[in-house]
Amino acid sequence: LLLRAGVPPFYDKLLQVPLLNLSIKALDHLATTWPLQALAPEKVGRSLTSRQRHLAYMSVWVVVFAVMTAFEGVGDWHRGQWLPFWQQACRAERRNACAYFEGLVSGFCERGSGWACNELGIVEAHRESEISDAVESTIRGCDLGFPPACANADVLSNSDRPRRSLRSEPPAAIDYPIVLRGSKGPLTARTPEALAALACREGWTSACASTAQSQ
Questions:
Q1: Does residue 180 sit in helix, strand or coil?
Q2: Which of 115, 170, 119 lies closest to 146 in space, CA to CA?
Q3: pLDDT digits over 78-117, tens only?
């Protein structure tokens, strides 16, 4: 829903914050119950002063976030906010990956990316009940100037042609301003060179070659 509304899906993480704020008293009460009291951290290191305990807690959090940052689990460069991550996960048939990828390309298709429309059509073509939607998506991709979408629209419109021949190719440079946007807000890169470098960093290997040639 957020993608279709043109809002980065990053904000979906904030939707539950009001509910958490309203339930804080219940959570405090829950922490005093017997099962959780057995896990109370103050029972560890009873000889520590309050200042030492506070320092220990902070040290643990520093280590946790350092490890998460090292593995790109947090921060602006987490791979999960970019399309190649979800495209690869979908191809590997990871749970819910295809549904999320479909939501991303659907939103980008509506914003004018011919590549995204083509990918949306390919995903829809895997469901027999949505062949007409797949044809419509690939035709839109063709109208937006993405040649593989034209070929796929022809295949999907002809029931005699095997759907396994559907073409999936990397996005064109004209698609970059749309499909390179992650979940953290609008792009700051504007020049073709900067967009190609960003595409390479996000995982579009086809952009890496053009980036290397320009250097």
A1: coil
A2: 115
A3: 777 888 999 999 989 888 888 889 988 999 999 999 999 9
Q: Would residue 72 be called left, alpha or beta, if left means φ above 0 and alpha means ψ between -120 and 50 degrees? A: left
Distance CA 125, CA 135 (A): 8
Nearest Cα to Cα of residue 83 among 187, 211, 183: 183
How big is the CA angle at 53 (ends 48 and 59), to the nearest 5 degrees? 130
CA atoms of 122 and 35, how far apart (whole Å)? 50
Cα separation, 166 vs 156, in Å, equals 8
pLDDT tens-digit series, residues 4-36: 555 555 566 677 888 889 999 998 888 888 878
Q: Is 0.85 topped by the overall pTM?
A: no
Do residues 9 and 86 lie in contact, with contact meaning Cβ atoms separated by under 8 Å? no
Q: Which of 203, 84, 178, 75 is nearest to 189 (CA)?
A: 178
Are 153 and 139 a contacting pair, CB within 8 Å?
Answer: yes
